[in-house]
Every structure is written in C-alpha cells, then in structure tokens.
Specification:
Layout lengths: L3 H20 L11 H20 L4 H20 L11 H13 L1
Helix pairs in contact: 1-2, 2-3
C-alpha cells in the first residue's frame, strides 16, 4: 500500500506536469499575462485533490469542493473587481453571465 508521502509526491508530480503543459501555451499568447491565471487553474485541482485525499472525504464532498473551487477561482480570476473582499456580488454574476453569453 502506498504511503501518504508517495501519494503527495505523485500529486506534486502531476501538478508539475500540468504546470508545464500550461506554460507551453506561451506560444499562443502575445504577452505573459496568462501565466499566473493558467498556472493557478492547472495546480488548483491537484491541491484540492491532496486535501480531500488526506482528509479521506467522500466522493460527493470532493465533487462539491471541486465545484466550489472552480466557481471561486473563476470569479477571482475573471471578475475580481466586482467582488467585495473576494465575495461575489450581484454585479459579479451579471458580468459572468455577460462573459458566458459573449463566449
């Protein structure tokens, strides 16, 4: 059976691989402004996975945390100016809806 340390190292290796894949998008973008948001999106799922595995949370709790993490990260990266101390407001939801409608 794998030890906790080996599981954490495997998650770290996967996060590093995801980060490398994210950084390979450098040829697609004209500036380096994409780096932090894309790295965050690449590493966040692995970090959430480590937390849920260490705490031995159920699949339902893991899914719920992943959805909340996705929503929070989307708000904080796409529309940070419309939040109040990081908490989404009605303006945040309106602006996100506009972004989704426009593609």
């Amino acid at each position: 059976m794998a030890t906790q340390r080996s599981r954490d190292l495997a998650a770290l290796a996967l996060a590093a691989l995801s980060a490398a894949a994210a950084l390979s998008l450098g040829r697609v973008f004209s500036s380096a402004e994409f780096v932090l948001p894309v790295l965050g999106a690449a590493v966040l799922p692995h970090a959430l996975g480590v937390v849920t595995r260490r705490r031995a949370w159920s699949a339902g709790v893991t899914l719920g945390l992943s959805l909340v993490g996705l929503a929070a990260y989307t708000v904080w990266v796409v529309e940070p100016a419309t939040t109040h101390l990081g908490v989404p407001s009605a303006a945040t939801l309106e602006d996100l809806g506009r972004h989704f409608d426009q593609g």
